């Protein structure tokens, strides 16, 4: 057994996905390592988001989707188990645009734990504080927890979204272009946060920003037309790509 197999948190084998008749992923295989940041890059429409969504079965919500192949998370084939709620608790997700509910900051973060049946006020207070601290936003919001979350800046809202994901105590956090709607300073804050989060969580991030992939990720997968062209240590993908198509993309010659 080599090292990457030993530490694989998610193991994807021969995964294909069809939207009706249209194939979007072609026999994708890759191992995602635990407590590392894995970046998914590639031109628009190459299947990055589709792939990301297969990891917590979000594509199940779309009519006509057919998936073949295996995704094993912690030794369990997620498409053979029917416990999608448990899966989505374990594999949290942060979207491109902050999508907080129109309620207070506190209630947003407490929403998931409450839905899981946690009612005890002290326990909820603890989860909310720990999650907001974990998302590096506690100091900015601790005096206004009961104010509307929608009154925060976009960058603050995105960190509260991350806190909301953390509150569910996931192992894995999927991020779909989490900074594309943010200004440069908020982007930097979220990137710093990602560097902190990987001490505890396995992170998979879709990004269009090459510098961001190079800055935050340990490994990078380059997708093209629904296939993985290259998957390697990030530094190799950017400095010493093996495939000409990867080189063309990371040097900005196409896409
Ligand atoms: N719900 C859907 N129904 C049908 N086709 C879809 C659906 N979602 C995505 N697709 C198609 O699947 C392919 C992959 O799309 P996907 O959104 O995964 O790409 P992407 O690499 O994330 O693109 P972008 O960078 O623009 O977000 C595209 O051809 C897209 O049109």
Automatic annotation (TrEMBL):
> Which SMART domains does the record cross-reference, listed alphabetically?
AAA
Gene3D superfamilies noted in UniProt: P-loop containing nucleotide triphosphate hydrolases
Taxonomically, the superkingdom here is Bacteria
Q: Name one GO molecular function term.
A: ATP binding
Q: Which SUPFAM superfamilies match?
A: P-loop containing nucleoside triphosphate hydrolases (SSF52540)
UniProt cross-references to InterPro entries, sorted A to Z: AAA+_ATPase, ABC_transporter-like_ATP-bd, ABC_transporter-like_CS, P-loop_NTPase, PstB-like
Domain ABC transporter residue range list? 10-250
What protein name is recorded for this chain?
Phosphate ABC transporter ATP-binding protein PstB
Q: What is the lineage of its organism?
A: Bacteria, Bacillati, Bacillota, Bacilli, Bacillales
Gene this chain is encoded by: pstB
């Amino acid at each position: 057994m080599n090292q990457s197999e030993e530490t694989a948190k998610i193991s994807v084998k021969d995964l294909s996905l069809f939207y009706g008749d249209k194939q979007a992923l072609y026999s994708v295989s890759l191992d995602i390592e635990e407590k590392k940041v894995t970046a998914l890059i590639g031109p628009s429409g190459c299947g990055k988001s589709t792939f990301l969504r297969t990891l917590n079965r979000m594509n199940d919500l779309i009519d006509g989707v057919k998936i073949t192949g295996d995704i094993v998370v912690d030794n369990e084939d997620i498409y053979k188990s029917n416990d999608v709620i448990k899966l989505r608790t374990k594999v949290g997700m942060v979207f491109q645009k902050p999508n907080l509910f129109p309620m207070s900051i506190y209630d947003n973060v407490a929403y998931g734990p409450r839905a899981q049946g946690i009612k005890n006020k002290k326990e909820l207070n603890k989860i909310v504080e720990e999650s907001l601290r974990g998302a590096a936003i506690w100091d900015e919001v601790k005096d206004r927890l009961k104010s509307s979350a929608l009154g925060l800046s976009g960058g603050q809202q995105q960190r509260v979204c991350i806190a909301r994901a953390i509150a569910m105590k996931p192992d894995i956090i999927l991020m779909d272009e989490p900074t594309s709607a943010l200004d440069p300073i908020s982007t930097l804050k979220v990137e710093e946060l990602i560097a902190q989060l990987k001490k505890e969580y396995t992170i998979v991030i879709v990004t269009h920003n090459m510098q961001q992939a190079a800055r935050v990720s340990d490994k990078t997968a380059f997708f093209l037309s629904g296939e993985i062209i290259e998957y390697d240590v990030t530094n190799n993908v950017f400095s010493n790509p093996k495939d000409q198509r990867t080189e063309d993309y990371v040097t900005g010659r196409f896409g």
